[in-house]
Amino acid sequence: MAWAGDGPVAGGARFAGMGQAGTTLVDLWCVNGNQAGLAGLEHPVVGAFYQQHWLAPDLAMQGLAAALPMGKGVFAVSASSFGGSLYAQRTFGLAYAMELGEGLRAGIQLDYFNIRLGEDYGSTGAISAELGVQARLTEKLWIGAHLYNPNRAKLGGPYEERMPTVLGGGLGYTFNEHVVLTGEVTKDIDRPEQYHAGVEYRPAKALFLRTGVSSGPAKAHFGVGLVMGQLDLDLAAVMRSQLGLTPMVNLNYRFK
Questions:
Q1: Bridge partners of residue 224, in order along the sequence
Q2: Which residues are CB-contacts of 52 (< 8 A; sequence separation ≥ 6)?
Q3: Could you tell me if 197 and 216 are in contact, meaning their C-beta atoms sit under 8 angstroms apart?
Q4: What average pLDDT does the chain have?
Q5: Which end of the chain is more exposed for a tag (fewer CB within 10 A), N or C?
Q6: Would you say 15 and 23 are in contact if contact means Cβ atoms under 8 Å apart?
Q7: Per-domain boundaries in the chain
Q8: Ranges in the chain, pLDDT < 50
Q9: CA of 12: how far to CAs of 85, 150, 217, in Å?
Q10: pLDDT one-digit tens code per residue, 1-57
Q11: For the chain, first and last CA: distance in Å?
Q12: Cα(251)–Cα(229) distance, rounded to whole angstroms?
């Protein structure tokens, strides 16, 4: 997670296209959402993403991720960067997820977060954790929950600022092989709750259409996904009326 508020969100054009309501989904970019979803991956996957917040070059974010099923679980690593010469933000993550039983997944991740300020103001960093679960309630209905920074990590420096602690929970309903509906609520312990909802429609085997909404402040989300053999291309755009457009793209390669 990059910012807890209306800031850049690390990776996952699929999630961005669905209103950032991805707590119950299975995807490589669960490394930046709910790590429990990594347990649903059956093959190794690598990916990269890029987004430009509000079309501002100085607010660009990019990152990489890789997941490797091994034994009864899935290991994943991720890295992202944001900012420029005056302010730079880096995050590195190591995750592990596994199936605990039929219809039950859990995941954990350790993150190293670093901030570097320009003009010799120095840098600071902190280590935080993430926890996630997913459970199947019925054949078509999943529930998920995710906790970011339960250890209340502090960034060093003169202000001893705490990193945000955020709890999220959501539902995912699969109507059929063509339509998935998701909804989610997230709560930073120091801020009001935010609401997210999205839908994914698959009109053809190689095409996904996505849309969603989110609050805090209100935003509209749109996305498209293309499957080209073992390559997945996802595009998304998030629109906030006062500030403009945030485009995002990610490319994933699935090994056999």
A1: 209, 235
A2: 59, 60, 61, 246, 247
A3: no
A4: 91
A5: C
A6: no
A7: 13-254
A8: 1-8
A9: 25, 23, 20
A10: 434 344 445 668 999 999 999 999 999 999 999 999 999 999 999 999 999 888 888
A11: 29
A12: 13
**One-letter amino acid of 253:** Y
Cβ–Cβ < 8 Å for 250, 234: yes
CA atoms of 198 and 181, how far apart (whole Å)? 6
| Rounded Cα gap, residues 59 and 212, in angstroms | 23
Any idea which residue has 């929950």 for tokens? 145
Cα separation, 203 vs 55, in Å, equals: 30
The backbone torsions φ and ψ at residue 28, rounded to the nearest 5 degrees and listed phi first, read: -55, -40
Are 216 and 20 spatial neighbours (Cβ–Cβ below 8 Å)? no
8 A C-beta contact, residue 22 and residue 31: no
CATH topology for 13-254 is Porin (2.40.160)
With 0-12 / 13-18 / 19 or more C-beta atoms within 10 angstroms meaning exposed / middle / buried, residue 159 is exposed
Backbone CA torsion sign across 145, 115, 194, 191? positive
